[in-house]
Amino acid sequence: MSIAVIRFPGTNNEDDVLKALGKIPDANPYLVPSRKGLAGLKDADAVVIPGGFSYGDYLRAGAVASVEVIVEGIRDLAEDGKPVLGICNGFQILAEMGLLPGVLLPNDSSRFICKWIYLKVCETNSIFSENLENAVLRLPIAHAEGNYFCSREQLEALRDEQRIPFRYCDSHGETSTESNPNGSLENIAGVTNQRGNVLGLMPHPERASRQILGSSDGLLILENFVRAIK
Amino acid sequence: MMDLIYEGKVKKVYQDPKSPERVIIEFTDLVTAGDGEKKEEIMGKGKLTSELTKYLLGYLEGKGIDTHFVKAHDEKQILCRKVEIYPVEVVCRNIAAGSFCRRYGLEKGKVLEEPLVEFFVKDDGLHDPLITQSGIVSLGLVSEEVLQFMKSVTLSVNYYLSELLQQRNLSLVDFKLEFGRTDAGHIVLADELSGDTMRVWDTNSESLDKDVFREDRGEIIEVYAKLIESLKESKPEEVEDRQEIIQVIVMPKKGIKNPPGEVTKKALVRLGFGVADDVRVGKLFSVVLKTPLTSEILAQLKLMNIKLLSNPISENSEVNLS
């Protein structure tokens, strides 16, 4: 299971992702600097785009990275049905690529938010959330632009097609305005593509992959991701 | 026999029998001045205007300006792309002369602080009156975008013509342009460019243009021939490219939260500027072009907006040519 972990200039969560994935049996994560282009994805069975500040978040978070050559390779893999996970800045890149609908706007508080939140698993038909019925997971977020926004039509499609596996909630699993950290539409923390093999997620599962870090709930999402690789 | 599709004071436009998208423009030997009050037929004049137009439009094409000129046809005729002419004439002035002096009571020869672009309604019955930019847009003669486009190209033409003439110690005083729209929707420089439509002075402020006829100061044939001769000695390749700067403005859409604007507003209020009821922060891109603006480039700029500079889900973008 070769998992390409992409590093754009300014990505800074790649080591955490490599370490967290490295502990999952059969996962073989390896670093791919984006400058390698399409060749860097030659052997990839799956892709993770970790968080950070690709290209300094200039223009818009994820916008510059979303037009790199390697991105066309990620798009091809996604179209082949290979699992693709974008975490935080990775989610922003997937949205800018148009592989996922919507956009991550600046947080409604106007601040960078770094804190632990709870995530409610809302759909379990997704490869990323299966076996996690009604689970409430504890993961950290760290972002300035995590306020998920999309058109009304897109939102309806996401709902109808059960493409919102993760929403922000409180410790009891209640999704309310109070438990929404950044102003995201309907507390959305993650969305998938129509086929279900691409997930964009604002919280950081790799930072919740060991008890000593405060939670290992993120490992459940990463394990699902690895299990989905064929 | 070719079909005559338009006849002006000194020009005839025929349909090119070989292509529906082309026309053949013929320059007659007629010379007119003072809104047609003064009129004379001068042998060989059509050939000279044709030659000047060919040379100058060809030169401008070489510098990247989109014109209707395709190639020479015969000595009095040029082959051009067929266009629908916009009902506005564009005049660019560097030095005060002609009607401009009468209008503002200026002495002929006053060098303007910067090139001035003026617009006139193309209407013989009304004697082509001067009109403001907002007048043009309000009357629906030409859209704001097309107007900005014409102004930008006119300033490019002014630069390239001035530089070329400068090599020959000649000054470009003023000139008139007309623009047209091709079937494909491209805006191109049309009509002619000759001593009939521009004023050119030598170092002694002697005219090499139609003013010699207007003011009975000499033989038009001689000065036109002199102008062509002089231009043929110029070196177009030595005229440096002019940079064109286009602004692209991106703003968050209405209803989209704008934290940078909110914090800026708070800070303004703290400083006592309660007058700022709302502030929204957007982005301004300054795109530098190495070539003059063309319809093709304008289309690319719009595409740039959608593909990268803005996110159409949450932002509006606009290309500002002025």
Task: Give descriptors for this structure.
heterodimer; A: 230 residues; alpha/beta; 11 strands; 24% strand; globular; B: 322 residues; alpha+beta; D-amino Acid Aminotransferase, Chain A, domain 1; Mth169, Chain: A; 2 domains
Model description:
The complex is a heterodimer of chains A (230) and B (322). Chain A has 230 residues and is α/β, with parallel strands linked by helices. Chain A has five helices and eleven strands, in the order βαββαβαββββαβββα. Chain A has helices spanning 14-22, 69-79, 89-97, 152-160, 217-227, and strands at residues 2-7, 28-33, 46-49, 84-87, 103-105, 113-121, 136-143, 147-149, 166-169, 188-192, 198-201. A nine-stranded mixed beta sheet of chain A has the order 2-1-3-4-11-10-9-6-7, sandwiched between helices. A two-stranded antiparallel ribbon of chain A has the order 5-8. The mean pLDDT of chain A is 96. Chain B is α+β, with helices and mostly antiparallel strands. Chain B folds into two domains: 4-238, 2-Layer Sandwich (D-amino Acid Aminotransferase, Chain A, domain 1); 244-320, Mth169, Chain: A. In chain B, the strands form four sheets. In chain B, strands 8, 9, 10, 11, 12 and 13 form a six-stranded antiparallel beta sheet that branches. In chain B, α1 packs parallel to α6. Chain B is globular. Chain A binds chain B through residues 59-60, 63, 67, 96, 102-103, 105-110, 147, 149-151, 183, and chain B through 256-260, 262-263, 307-309, 311, 313-314.
